[in-house]
Design a protein that fits this description.
The protein starts with a helix and ends in a 14-residue tail after the last helix. With 632 residues, it is mainly alpha-helical. Helix 8 packs antiparallel against helix 9, helix 9 packs antiparallel against helix 10 and helix 27 crosses helix 30.
Length: 632
């Protein structure tokens, strides 16, 4: 036997002896001889976290109603940054139709435990999943106190622009009704604290103080109630805002729920001021995250929260200031950039709200033809955010699920999924690759396009080196990444020839044609109704720093995807343009369709293959422009 094997065998034997000793001592102390928490503590003390988790999971399989074991388990999961494990474990238990309510509670809190790990942009989707678990119980038992409290507590943490405070208040009012006339329990303190907080957030400050005062009569001089009652009326709104959204972001939510079975009222339940991370606490109160988000991500989240009210309202999106993202002001694109952002955010929020396929289809019909593709990229972003937080394998279901909404926009759904991974900056290239492989060759290619688009658009200003990220990917993925980056560069710099040349020099030479094709696709996608403008770049070619073949390859893709998604819109546009432009667009759409058929027959990376087939057809007669000369 090798020395390594001998060591581990000895370690296991020692751990077994220790566990037996702990069991004996527990028995002598009057504790259950096989108390899983006691055994798990011994395992943790000797560095065997996996063994401890296995012990606790086996105990929870046997006793699925135990909140106490699950509470200890989740606390250790968070301490060891293993939130994916607890989510997967409770999800498996919840697959049983006969699972008790406690399984859903634990899964709901497990989702919340992960919030600090996904960054501020992903918190809403984790909360959405948490709410779904509480609602599963609520649907069966509307008078369940924990389900009502859990839904209300989640909604209370959502930023004001989602307008969830009124909903949160309704659930806390239901909790208040359920506990009236019953024997006083420590957990009822939470209702008075949270309901008052919800009233403050809805602007009913006097009513909030009335609720806290009633709570103080039942829980005399509790520190959390006194802190609120002692805060002047003109300062309480800011204090509550800081509690639920510290630093304009979302902090960790402590999900220690031992107050549910506590025999005495804890000294801290929902402190008005965030606790130090070393302090304990119960009831799911907000506290500062142990590590703030990266500066670039925090700045992005701050911009997002400031502008979301404008982005989400069609009549107001012109008020959005895109300059913090590095978008250059120019008369060609100003309104179009905001319209694109509005479309993406509309789709993103629709998915965040949990709309069913029929509702999403109705919203699709309400979008104007120009914005509709970007709406579907936003839907893809939202879908990826809602499924990728704990199990990247769930992405493999995306193509099927999205096809029920609008199959003609499947490419854009997939690109949107990639955008989410680029937007949510905490993920490593390895994690991204693991997730995208779940989508298959077709989906993976478009996801990398979206990934490159989002990384470039949202992080270029704070990190110009972001264009080097593609070099960490395998060549096929890198080509699609840089195509997406080219799309973003069009939005960022518009027609600025000098700036375009400067940035494209940062793209590795072997992928520069991919970036040019992405740039061309971006132009065709956003200036779809002005083909004269679109073709002017190709006609001027090198004089404006453009590779005509690569650029027209992207233009062909842009018009082809637009045609596939909304042929009526393209027909309307072509009926209002000059005959030569109509001829050019039609010719490119036909060329793109034929190239796609050939690419599909060859298989492999469809995105890259399609570009190659288009480029080959464009240059069959010597150069790309010759393909269009007959339209002059």
């Amino acid at each position: 036997m090798s020395m390594a094997k001998s060591f581990w065998r000895t370690a296991r034997e020692r751990l077994a002896v220790l566990a037996a000793a702990v069991s004996l001592l527990a028995s002598c102390a009057g504790l259950p001889s096989h108390d899983p928490v006691t055994i798990a503590k011994a395992q943790l003390a000797h560095g065997d976290a996996d063994g401890a988790f296995n012990t606790l999971e086996e105990a929870m399989r046997r006793d699925q109603k135990s909140l106490a074991i699950a509470n200890f388990y989740r606390a250790q999961i968070v301490a060891h940054v293993k939130e994916d494990r607890s989510i997967s474990f409770f999800k498996k238990l919840a697959e049983n139709p006969q699972a008790p309510d406690e399984v859903y509670y634990n899964l709901a809190f497990a989702y919340i435990d992960k919030i600090p790990r996904v960054g501020p942009m992903g918190a809403g989707f984790l909360s959405k999943r948490s709410i779904a678990q509480f609602k599963a119980v609520f649907a069966k038992r509307p008078d369940d106190w924990v389900a009502n409290y859990g839904i209300g507590m989640n909604y209370l943490h959502w930023p004001d622009y989602f307008k969830k405070t009124e909903g949160a208040l309704g659930y806390f009012e239901k909790c208040m009704q359920l506990q009236q006339g019953k024997r006083l329990e420590p957990k009822y303190l939470l209702t008075y604290l949270r309901m008052g907080d919800a009233l403050v957030r809805s602007g009913e400050i006097d009513r909030a103080y009335e609720v806290w005062t009633r709570g103080n009569e039942l829980f005399p001089r509790h520190p959390d109630l006194r802190a609120r009652l002692d805060t002047p009326h003109d300062q309480i709104a800011q204090a509550i805002r800081d509690l639920y959204n510290p630093n304009n972001s979302i902090g960790a939510i402590n999900t220690d729920i031992s107050i549910l079975w506590a025999k005495s009222v804890p000294s801290a339940a929902v402190p008005l001021h965030a606790l130090d991370t070393k302090q304990g606490g119960v009831g799911g109160q907000l506290r500062a995250a142990s590590a703030p988000p990266a500066a670039a991500e925090a700045d992005l989240f701050s911009w997002f929260t400031r502008n979301l009210p404008y982005l989400s309202e069609k009549s107001a999106y012109s008020k959005v200031d895109m300059s913090p993202l590095g978008v250059r002001s120019n008369e060609v694109m100003n309104d179009r950039v905001n319209a694109i952002a509005h479309g993406m955010i509309s789709g993103f929020l629709a998915e965040l709200e949990g709309d069913e396929s029929s509702a999403l289809q109705a919203k699709d019909r309400d979008e104007d033809p120009f914005t509709r593709p970007f709406f579907h990229e936003g839907v893809g972003m939202g879908y990826a955010a809602s499924v990728s937080t704990e199990d990247v394998g769930e992405l493999k279901k995306m193509a099927d699920d999205m096809s029920r909404i609008a199959p003609r926009f499947s490419r854009l759904h997939l690109a949107g999924a990639g955008m989410w991974f680029g937007l949510e900056g905490a993920r490593s290239p390895e994690r991204v690759a693991e997730a995208f492989r779940q989508l298959g060759a077709f989906g993976e290619a478009y996801a990398y396009e979206g990934y490159g688009f989002a990384k470039t658009l949202f992080y270029m200003k704070s990190n110009p080196e972001v264009l080097q990220l593609g070099t960490q990917l395998r060549p096929e993925a890198a080509a699609n990444f840089y195509h997406g980056a080219g799309r973003a560069l069009w939005i960022l710099i518009g027609t600025d020839t000098e700036r375009r040349a400067q940035l494209l020099k940062q793209v590795p030479e072997r992928y520069r044609s991919d970036a040019y094709s992405g740039y061309g696709m971006g132009v065709a996608f956003t200036k779809v109704d002005d083909p004269g403008f679109v073709f002017s770049f190709a006609e001027r070619g090198s004089s404006v720093g453009i590779q005509p073949e690569a650029y027209l390859t992207g233009v062909t893709m842009g018009y082809s995807i637009r045609q596939q998604g909304d042929p009526a819109y393209i027909s309307t546009i072509l009926s209002h343009v000059s005959a030569p432009d109509r001829c050019r667009v039609t010719r490119l759409i036909d060329l793109g369709r034929a190239a796609l058929e050939d690419a599909e027959r060859k298989g492999g990376d469809l995105h890259d293959s399609w570009r190659n087939e288009i480029r080959k057809r464009l240059t069959d007669k010597g150069n790309a422009l010759s393909s269009l000369n007959g339209c002059a």
